[in-house]
Write a structure and sequence with these properties.
Strand content: 5-15%
CATH topology of the largest domain: Arc Repressor Mutant, subunit A
Helix content: 25-40%
Largest sheet: 4 strands, antiparallel
CATH superfamily of the largest domain: Winged helix-like DNA-binding domain superfamily/Winged helix DNA-binding domain
Number of domains: 2
Strand order of the largest sheet: 3-6-4-5
Radius of gyration: 15 Å
Number of helices: 4
Structural class: alpha+beta
């Protein structure tokens, strides 16, 4: 029987248990070598706090787009480079139970969501 799934510390996606991790599952923090190299940077932490700040300024029923956080953190010309880091930050916040990711108003699994997403405060 596989142990419960974990969340990657870098990208926020679900880490699927693998037989090769059986002995050291407790120390597994990242889903891949790329995530282990990337880690969580100061920009990532800044995006997380910006998402929470933007949501705090809005009505409790409102949501934001990851681009709102990317624009707030990035420069006018390079905010698009921060779109994937903003999505990763949102997934980490979902794992922490602080926000939910939605598509068309319905909560979706952040590990498998493809396409445009919205971020809102957790309602549960």
């Amino acid at each position: 029987m596989a142990p419960p799934a974990k969340t990657c510390a870098s990208c926020g996606r679900t880490i699927q248990w693998r037989k090769k991790w059986e002995r050291d599952w407790d120390s597994v923090r990242f889903c891949s070598a790329a995530c282990r190299r990337r880690g969580v940077t100061t920009v990532d932490a800044q995006l997380e706090s910006t998402i929470l700040e933007l949501l705090a300024r809005r009505a409790s029923t409102s949501s934001i787009c990851p681009s709102d956080a990317a624009r707030a953190v990035g420069q006018p010309d390079d905010w698009r480079d921060l779109m994937e880091p903003a999505r990763r930050a949102a997934r980490r916040l979902v794992a922490a139970g602080e926000v939910e990711i939605t598509q068309h108003g319905h909560v979706v699994d952040p590990s498998t969501a493809a396409g445009p997403i919205r971020i809102r405060r957790s309602r549960s």
